[in-house]
Specification:
Elements: H1 3-29, H2 40-67, E1 86-97, E2 100-111, E3 116-118
Antiparallel strand pairs: 1-2, 2-3
Amino acid sequence: MAQQDVSELLNALRPALQAAAKNVLRHAYGPDGLPWGTRFSDLEDVAVRVGDLLATEVLQAALQRQAHGDPPAPLRGCPTCGGPPGRPAHEPRRVRSRRGPVAWDEPAAFCDRCRRAFFPSVPEPGP
């Protein structure tokens, strides 16, 4: 995604993020808001950690949703023989993102003809 596309996406998300920020503050500090005298650095620490948690939750939700959806047609069959995959399963996958660990269940399949396991979500290089 190009930098301009990301900027446009963030501009479109701004109202939802502003509402989420107000909701987070209400849940964190109650209906009266931030206690008077709270140091800026303390509030900043909370804001940074909330941002990191939001980032990992967005990544995890997006990856989990994609993993449980239908893959594009070119990724539905065995990459070796092109036959239909049998015995679908999910393999746990965990990576460390720039904002923290992210885990999801990656789709996996086993081709009975080729006797090989593969992950339909990852296209393999062609000849």
